[in-house]
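Subject: sequence -> structure tokens, single chain

Hey, anyone have a minute? Need the predicted structure for the following. Not urgent.
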Amino acid sequence: MLWLRVPEKVYFKKGSMPVALEELKTVYNKKKAFIVTSASAYKSGKTAYTEKLLDEMKIQHTVFFDICCTASLEKVQAGAGAAQLFEPDVIIAVGGSGVMDAAKLIRVLYEHPEADIRELASRFSDIRSRAELFPATNKKASLVTIPTSSGTGEEVTPYACVADGDSLLRLADYELMPEFVVVDSDNMIAQSREQIGSAAMKALVHIMTAYDSESATEYTDGFAMKALENIIGYLPGFYENGSTDPQGCEKLAEASAMAGIAYANTCSADKCCKTAALTLADEMLKSSEADDSVYARYLSLARAVGLSGSDDKETVNKLITKINELTAMCSK
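Reply:
Had a minute. Here:
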């Protein structure tokens, strides 16, 4: 049996924040919001607009801003404790992938204080293998994710990673999936060139990992193809021009989310991307030369994103060359 799981709602257009968040009041009748973010995002004012919109809707809110780049189990537990005291009916993550991961797990512990994240990680890392059910969520609080950077697509995935000392705990279950996602590129326009390049490389690796997966379907291929088309078409301009290219920013944000959806529906949380961005083109070349079925899929992908050559081999090579060029550009 095949399936495709995505969040209940995904707003993905530039400037969509006011319309999207208004539904918290008009559709979902939310009254108390617990905002999860990082200290750097909070100090730089990245939650200010969200707070302003909540104030206008008279939704009571508080901010937990003690999350680092990679969420730690200790901070997640502290956030869950703060949520228990505040008793929100919606948790809103505003930030990067670490914030998204933290908010997902804060909700689990808020709704199930007895849950043990270490124990859950030992049983729920492969989303396609289930002998029992993950603790149910969205009973006390909905989860809204608002990314402020692009790349991992963590805002749309059922995955969460958390640091536990020197170890990294990985969890995967659709109960971790947010119900409501706002991919508004206005929140991402102030990225540095380094951040843009890093985001694009993460998205590229997710695209090709999903596309190469044995679990890939026509549905996940569609997300992967469109994400790659966006990156090929708009990344060079956004990388070069930064905040003066809002369309490029929007297209990269959309590519990141689509890559996240493709990756989330084809790969397990315990499947680390073995192919680094710097070797992505080399790995593609080796795979296409060694396996006729991989070669045929790369040919379809190349044609889908508008690449063509004098024959099939040149068409595939153009795809691999394009990946190599983008990687080299973002590695400068």
